[in-house]
Amino acid sequence: MKKLITHKEFIKAVESAISRNKKASINCGGNLFAEISAKGLCTFYVRIRSTTVDTKKMLGRYPDLSLKDAREKANLELNKLRIQKEEKQRHSDTLTFGAYSSMWLSFFKVDPKSNNNTHKNNKRHDNLRSSLKILAELNSTPIDLINPKTVDKVLSKSDKPAGAKRIAIKALNQCLKSAVVDGIIEKNPCENMLNSQGLISQKYRKPKVIGYAWVEAKYLREKFFEKLSNEPYMHKVFYLFVAMTSLRVGSVSELRWNWIDYKNKAIHIPAEYMKMSRDFSIPLSDFVASLLKRWEIQCIRNEQISPYVFFAKSSLQKPIRVIQVQDPVTNNTQKEITLHGLRKSARTWMAQIGVPEIIAEYALSHEAKSSMVAVYNKYDYFQERIPVMRLWNYYIYTQLPESFKDLIEDLPSEYLDNCKKELDELKSKISFFEKERNY
């Protein structure tokens, strides 16, 4: 490195360069240079060394900037560069978000051959992985450089709906919280990204919703089924199955063919696929049995052999993604009704025809309101639910447009007449109480 020149030496060099009326460069030492133009202008630069191409940064003109001041500014720039280089080196030793998130996701992966699994199934793993795919651009970023600004930059480029982005932020926060516990990062900068008053938070905050949108059962034809008439065959089977069984969408998406017991007229769902974590059986009415059998025949014809009743677009060995069937409902019904809202439609209808509360609640796989009752009463009311589900399915059947009714094989007229008779008898009993109330 060249020795630092004195002020006197600098003045002499400048005067000499100007006298020649040519461009000249004076090495002042310490990466500081003064360049003299042909017109005699003297400008200070600091040289910034790089492994590729050296660059220079202008500091100011002499005599407005003295040699001493120019040297101080040059040192500040060089120190700043050194700090940035050290910071970059430090981050290069830090795990990237992609590397850490892969290790973190493996915690949720269920190995069917192992007895040490921490989760019931791979549903949580698959959902988290799917959500983090939206943030795939962050995978090469050091995990300690992730903050709301970097996350927002990635999400702003995505065409995913706001709900999917919000879920991605939640998944990211779970991962970063784990990184804090593991000592990888000191704190999670995105912790309040969804619940602070910042401008970024407001972009992704969930709008306030009061419950799930639903309609009374008598409006299902007009506001639900007719608006979904042009959906793919499998989607329509899914919607009708959800409406008739009143099961949660998550359980239906995981439905396997071997859970369906045609002989004993039941569908048996293992505990790990139920919200309440208990085995649950639902009566299999002739309506639902016909729906499933016709769909199974269609799958065989199309050579779509899958263990799942409703399979993914990408693979027959994977269950259908819930968002795949939820989005069409949201888009076609103007958000007047949701798939989960169908459970409200069913529960309200059961109350209207006088189904006892305990039976109606079990039909929706709800826990008993009293924790004491839940502990001691292990009866599942399966037999009592058989006529309830049969009549509910009959009522739904009467609400179907042809595009949905065609999904079910023609049922014997005698069977349909008996269903109508039973339902009319129940309604007549309710109408008696309505008359009494009006006196």
From TrEMBL:
SUPFAM superfamilies linked: DNA breaking-rejoining enzymes
Highest taxon above the source species: Bacteria
Single biological process term from Gene Ontology: DNA recombination
Domain Tyr recombinase: 215-390
Keywords, comma-separated and alphabetical: DNA integration, DNA recombination, DNA-binding
CDD domains listed in its UniProt record: INT_P4_C
PROSITE patterns the record matches: TYR_RECOMBINASE (PS51898)
Any one GO MF annotation of this record: DNA binding
PANTHER family: PROPHAGE INTEGRASE, PROPHAGE INTEGRASE INTS-RELATED
Family: Belongs to the 'phage' integrase family.
UniProt-recorded name of the protein: Integrase
Lineage: Bacteria, Pseudomonadati, Pseudomonadota, Gammaproteobacteria, Aeromonadales
